[in-house]
Amino acid sequence: MNQPTESRFGSAVVTLPTDTQIQITRVFDAPAAIVFEAWTTPDLVRRWWGTDDHPLTVCEIDLRVGGDWRYAMNMDGAELGWHGTYQAISEPNQLVSSEVFEGYPDGEAVNSLTLDEAEGTTTLTVVVQHRTKENRDGHIASGMEAGMQRTLDQLDILTVEWSRS
Fold it and tell me: Model pTM greater than 0.85?
């Protein structure tokens, strides 16, 4: 326990519960409080979100209901950005926020993050609620799953190392 489990790498499961939802589920070998803090602290988010080739250039988090967040990265000379507003926070188990990919502002979604801890592991579940099936399908077709697997693997490494210290 409390060591990165390579067998978990790439293990996030993506399902489509409804015509407008994407659900992502992944287990972490760390307590929910550590996963929550890593998810909501800019200095920590910078360590796991993005890639070595395309790190975050902007990571702003105003963690309060009504507070805003924004992430941006440089991709081949162009800034790609995402932003949203926190709608509900129940630390360390729930976080609900809007999300807008700035390249497609009409595709706003609502992300509901739940962290369930049991016996030293935490199951992360994110439900992305899109307004339309077309927006959901576009999100899936964007290649989001490959990037999401990589970033969640990096989050796993960070949270396990942190929980050991």
Answer: yes
